[in-house]
């Protein structure tokens, strides 16, 4: 018996706003059932001694050290602000 019925394919297609002919739905049902069968074969493998893989490539963090540095002078920051008060940028209120 198929794990993915034609009705299931039609239902998911409807949710995804896709349209399939009856033949296409039947074909997709068989193809999806085969994919599930291949995935179930993986459950039969003994993976007790396999270390978890977080990334297929052995990559290290290539980002620079996060070192705090002084920011821009407040005068330069506020130079392009259309409205500011008490060293803060003023914006229109959006909450009453």
What is the gist of this entry?
With 96 residues, this protein is mainly α. It has helices spanning 6-15, 22-42, 74-78; strands spanning 84-85, 88-89.
Give a written overview of the molecule.
By secondary structure, this protein is mainly alpha-helical. It is built from three helices and two strands; from the N terminus they run H-H-H-E-E. Strands 1-2 form a two-stranded antiparallel sheet. Strand 1 (84-85) and strand 2 (88-89) form a beta hairpin. Helix 1 packs across helix 2. The longest helix is centred in the middle third of the chain and has 21 residues, at 22-42. The mean pLDDT is 90.
- Strand count: 2
Sheet with the most strands, sense and barrel status: 2 strands, antiparallel
Q: What is the end-to-end distance?
A: 61 Å
- Rg for CA atoms: 29 Å
The run of helices and strands is: HHHEE
**What share of the residues lie within helices?**
25-40%
Q: Mean pLDDT, rounded to whole units?
A: 90
Strand-residue proportion: under 5%
The spatial strand order of the largest sheet comes to 1-2
Tally of separate helices: 3
Shape: elongated
Query: Which structural class do the helices and strands define?
Result: mainly alpha
Unreliable spans are none
């Amino acid at each position: 018996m198929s794990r993915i019925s034609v009705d299931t394919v039609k239902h998911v297609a409807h949710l995804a706003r896709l349209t399939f002919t009856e033949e296409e739905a039947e074909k997709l049902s068989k193809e999806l059932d085969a994919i599930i069968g291949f995935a179930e074969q993986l459950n039969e493998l003994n993976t007790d001694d396999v270390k978890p893989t977080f990334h297929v490539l052995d990559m290290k963090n290539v980002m620079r050290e996060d070192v705090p540095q002084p920011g821009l002078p407040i005068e330069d920051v506020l130079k392009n602000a259309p409205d500011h008060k008490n060293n803060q940028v003023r914006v229109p209120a959006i909450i009453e």
